[in-house]
Amino acid sequence: MSETTIVRTTTVFVVPIIFVFAMHLLVHGHNAPGGGFVAGLLGVAALVLLLFADFRANVMQMPAVALCCAGVALTVCTGVVPIFFGKSFLTHVHGIVSTTLVFDIGVCAAVCGAGIAVVQAFVGDEEQGGS
Question: What pTM was estimated for this model as a whole?
Answer without folding.
Answer: 0.82
